[in-house]
Amino acid sequence: MSPNIPTRRATLTGLLLGASMTALPFDARAATRALPYRWRNVRVGGGGFVPNVVFSPVEKGLAYLRSDMGGAYRWQASESRWIPLLDDQAQGSWQGVESVAPDPVDPNRVYLACGMGRPDPAAILRSETRGTDWTVIPVPFRMGGNEDGRGLGERLAIDPNDTRVLYFASRHDGLQVSRDRGATWGKSASFPLPGLGLNARPAPTHGGLSFVIFDPRSGAAGQGSKTIFVGVADPSEHHLWRSDDGGATWKPIPAPHAYLACKAALDRKGRLYVTYSSGIGPSNVEDGAVWRLDTAANAWTEITPAKPLPQRGGGFMGVAVDANGAVAVTSLNRWNPYDTLWRSTDHGATWTDLYPDARRDVTTTPFLHWGEPEADFGWWMAGLAIDPFDPDFACYTTGATIYATREFTKASSGRPTTWFPWVEGIEQTAIITLASLPEGPQLLSGFGDISGFVHDDLAVSPTDQFTTPVFGNTNFIDYAGRKPSVVVRSGTPHQRHGGPTLAWSADHGRTWAPLTAPRITGAPSPPGQGRRGPDPHDDAAIVVNADGAVFMVMTAQPQVTRDRGATWTLCRGLPAWVRPVPDRVDPRRFTAIDTQTGRRFVSTDAGASFNEAATRGLPADLSADQVTWREIPWPLKAVPGQVGHLWFVSTQGLYRSTDGGARFSRIDGGVQVDQLDFGAQPPGKPHPALFAIGRKDGVKAIWRSDDEGASWVRVNDARHEYGRRFRCLAADMRVYGRVYVGTDGRGIVYGEPG
After folding, report:
1. Cα–Cα distance for residue pair 6/639, rounded to 1 Å
2. Rounded to 5°, angle at Cα 362 from 361 and 368
3. What is the pLDDT of residues 391-413, one digit of tens each?
4. Where is the segment annotated Disordered (predicted)?
């Protein structure tokens, strides 16, 4: 039966939870008037690490997914897609979901434990409408939805015999208990491990308590469950604790090893399956095991499918049981030879390894090929789930997608299983840079972890991934203003592929050739902090002049090539680490602003040499505008189609020049602009529309100006906040009013009037 779902909203429950509680601020200004815009995702499909999927135990076809930086999703069976549930939340920390718990009695109720990391605010979110709207309950204990150990769990559990009772296995503050459906929380005084606290050292984070499991056979409806299990993922004498009196007292269950308890699953006969690892993952795990506990006798049996060998490494994480008692587990961080998934129909006495006979059909998300003939089985396989109503449907999560199959029971008979990306509706990626060209494909994108793409159709997962070379991250994309088919990009090496960090294309980014610029010996260190390693050569951005003939690489002293990388020459006349930008119309002109001194440098010979030139109107001190990290856009921007027109995005305001930077004027439209881009011209106006990521009255949002920055209107509304985790933007050069926004966790979204 479908729930009666009201208009989407978010409410704040103000609670006094102790002296350390601080109220979550409610900013009435967040309702700043927005233009009517329609927002959608640019489709890629999955793309990032998903810690777990949890099925509802009471309604077929209902499941929830938690991500480490992109919020939570609900599987909408009627639409055959995942529905994002936290797009209307303005608090970025809520996008890191530590745990999810569907109610075991009421299919409409679901809880999330949200908090990005130890420094960030945390909350329990409760919904009575399957996540359509939320009550936000701030809590004083911190979480780590995007920290190491985010694959542990599930930490949040509901007593199936008394759904008013919730337990939360916290990282830092022991076992937390609520007896009023999450409205108030307090630390269990009886649980023997109070937590290491927020200041535990030397580790930057720790796993704490890893899971809670109620045994539904130990109680009766309305009276609560007596038997409760809690796992421990910190170094400790014992890693599993048990209560048989509803949490009043606890006893350890000694185990013959020192591994950390990661996840557990309880079958209907009282067998508790626990995965163990030497670390909390998702990386740096060297060893592990799988054990089965006969809960009636408190007796352990080791059932490890394949013990990690020293040359293999890795532990175990995912575990699930089906309605018939079959059990499955995943390895974790077993890079050599591979991570895999096992299934057993005899309680772990024997196992079937699914890897050899598994087939992957990634037609809907072709990037999973990574330029190889066959898609990878997966890595960082922390999550594993079996549909409680259909033992043939199972899924496991990876560092790039979620694979599902409708043939899971075939595995134990040795027959092949076919797996497909179960990601329709999920966009769980971090976007670093975007470029909208005036011709060719609609969009070029630079992603964290998965290189980047050519987007010809915004509704289809792209077939043209940036390869030859494949980057881990694509940090910067530029195109020739008068010849947009020529595109350049820079990035960081891929973990597996390695290779050059520069590339160029002559066909709008569809095919690429690598570039490598010479290293500059004895180069001074760049100003500021945040560079990767002592030599930032591999971080250097690349730009192209207006006619596509000259590439310039921003090493300590910029270098140019006029023969597609065959030879390089140093630019003369520039101080170290000053970065020029090419004019979008005049191929001979480059302009640079030295943020350390405020001086302007101009080249009129296509970057061969630079001369200092006077400038007026910029603040005297631009040191706060110095870019110190490879992913941050450069503050000086040239306007497409207009010779000598420049904008400078400063922490002190927005500045414009129409004479190549000789004079700048401050443009005060009431928005503090953080990033700026130029879109198609408004009807009847000569200057491109401006789009910005910026702040006004304390609200970070997406803004548009049709009058050259004199005034701004907000274009994203309260239903499309995305945690305000906006990383980059690109305005469409051909479609007036359309803007693409790269988020930190929700992929690329784009808005257009409508």
Report:
1. 45
2. 135
3. 999 999 999 999 999 999 998 78
4. 517-539
Residue with tokens 């004019």: 583
Choose the catalytic residue: 294, 449, 547, 707.
Answer: 449
Q: For 638, list phi and psi in degrees, rounded to 5.
A: -95, 145
Place of tokens 């027109």: 645
Amino acid present at 362: V
Q: How many CA atoms lie within 13 A of 101 on its CB side?
A: 33
Its pTM stands at 0.93
8 A C-beta contact, residue 666 and residue 653: yes
Tokens 């290779």 belong to residue = 499
* Mean pLDDT on 349-375: 93
Give the per-residue pLDDT at 312: 65
Strands of 271-277's sheet, edge to edge?
260-266, 271-277, 288-294, 299-302
On the 0-12 / 13-18 / 19+ scale of CB atoms within 10 A, 318 is buried
Instruction: Tell me if residue 68 is catalytic.
Output: yes
Scan for tokens 């180069």, then name that residue.
Answer: 523
Residues 12, 22: Cα–Cα separation, whole Å: 13
Asked if 690 and 709 count as a contact pair (C-beta separation under 8 A), the reply is yes
Task: Supply the pLDDT for residue 496.
Answer: 66
> Is 103 labeled as catalytic in the residue annotation?
no
Cα–Cα dist 537/462, whole Å: 30
DSSP labels, 263-275: EEEE-TTSEEEEE
Domains of the chain (ranges plus CATH)? 47-421 (2.130.10.10)
| Mean pLDDT, rounded, for 162-178 | 98
CA distance 137 to 123: 5
Out of 68, 87, 234, 732, the active site residue is: 68
